[in-house]
Amino acid sequence: MANKGNKKHQQFSLEEKMKVVEAVDSGKRKGDVAKEFGITPSTLSTFLKDRTKFEKKVREASVGPQRKRMRSALYDDIDKAVFAWFQEIHAKNILVTGSVIRKKALNLANMLGYDNFQASVGWLNRFRDRHGIALKAVCREDTDRLMNGLGIDKVNEWHAGEIIKLIADYSPDDIFNADETGVFFQLLPQHTLAAKGDHCRGGKKAKQRLTALFCCNASGTEKMRPLIVGRSASPRCLKNIHSLPCDYQANQWAWMTRDLFNEWLMQVDARMKRAECRILLLIDNCSAHNMLPRLERIQVGYLPSNCTAVLQPLNLGIIHTMKVLYRSHLLKQILLKLSSREDQEEVDIKQAIYMIAAAWWSVKPSTVVICWQKAGIIPMEFAECDIESAASEPDTAIEKLWHTVAIATCVPNEVNFQDFVTADDDLIISQDTNIIQGMVAGENTSEAGSEDEEEVSLPEQPKVTITEAISSIQKLRQFLSTCVDVPDAIFGQLNGIDEYLMKRVTQTLVDSKITDFLQTK
């Protein structure tokens, strides 16, 4: 008994415990598993009882698989914030030293309101052990390589190697690129200089911005529905609105987050599964993209870090063209108000959504193809299109429109249309301080701004009946019949709307007659 009492207590790592559980799951008898791993039946029972804890820890990577104890950190929220930051840095293949981690920990602790936290060497060692992190010393040569290895050699290496392997099994129809951009959706021409270069990290400007996610394929034949992220979860202008030309989500910063991006990814994956398609999706490695869910029909390829300006098709002119078209919609609205001497009203989220979607669908397939060719992902001979004509957007008509509005609204002479278009190019769409804001404020739609903060109080618009909608179509036909050289496509689109409305109203009438008949019976 004395010898038994002096027996050293054996400890097992999470990895070892999971191997024991997996052995039982494979169909082996529990007694045989206990003998194989040299444990008692009671220890085996404990492992099986605690399996959900082990799986959660490994899945969330909050404890390294080699750890033998699951003790939490003293400053658990600091620990989680630093580890989330480390995962982002690691996903970008950036080497970090222990001193860098300690400095980041102090910075995050200060943001979380901890004044007494000390990122000591002992804390660093415990942090490494908790998460199974092996740090490597970074020599001067490594630093120089990281700083200088972001040029043409890196791009050429990617073109010659990784991208060829990625696209080998896919046609241009099945190769997609997704990217986000920020939009000051209420920006007026006369305020362009004030907005230029504004990163919009919060405050009042957050109410005036949206983040838009776009996705298209290399052949220009498919552009997916945009995802718009706003600040208000339930803006007043979307009350009783059940159909939009895009998907809409919200959080208090109007930023893209991991949860929102992953939710969008899962929806695309489900759609590809229903269509029995497999696609390659090329994305950058921003903080919202680096912890992806399990996908069945989407293979994700990451663009090299710090090279998206020359490798990401959406950044090479597709998103810019969308913004050109969106700003031109704004200019037309302003000009219409000026001509009718009406007061300028701020664009609300619903109007912005309609205009962003209209601009996105109006981007020409030839423009899309050329931007993919600029990225070097598809060959120049893939599509026969006129590069000069596709690159001519914005056209002279838009420039004339800008000139007219600029004079009427007293825009400074040094501001041009391109300044107006690119005024929100520097908006932050996601960043590592998401970690802090998510922990402090709960980064989800429930913490989004209220509708009262988001919009000025406007009278609620009366509901349009289907009979009124059909009457409006007839009035539009009557108006167009008095115009000269109306394209056939316009009449075709009008006929499509008319057909949809008539189908709705007749189906409603048929259903009501059947109901009336059943009630009389």
Structure in words:
One of its GO terms (cellular component) is nucleus. Residues 30-50 bind DNA. It is found in: Nucleus. Keywords: DNA-binding, Nucleus. Residues 3-54 form the HTH psq-type domain. The structure is a single chain. The protein is of the alpha/beta class and 521 residues long. It has 4 domains: 14-60, Arc Repressor Mutant, subunit A, CATH 1.10.10; 76-145, Homeodomain-like (Arc Repressor Mutant, subunit A), CATH 1.10.10.60; 158-385 and 393-422, Nucleotidyltransferase, domain 5; 466-519. The chain is 50% helix and 7% strand. The protein has 24 helices and 6 strands. The protein has helices at 2-5, 14-25, 30-37, 41-49, 51-60, 76-91, 98-111, 121-131, 140-148, 152-160, 162-167, 192-195, 258-274, 308-311, 318-339, 349-362, 365-374, 387-390, 396-408, 417-422, 434-441, 451-454, 466-481, 488-520; strands spanning 175-184, 209-217, 227-230, 247-250, 279-283, 298-302. It has a 6-stranded mixed β-sheet with strand order 4-3-2-1-5-6, with helices on both faces. The protein is globular. The N and C termini lie far apart (88 Å). 27% of the residues are buried.
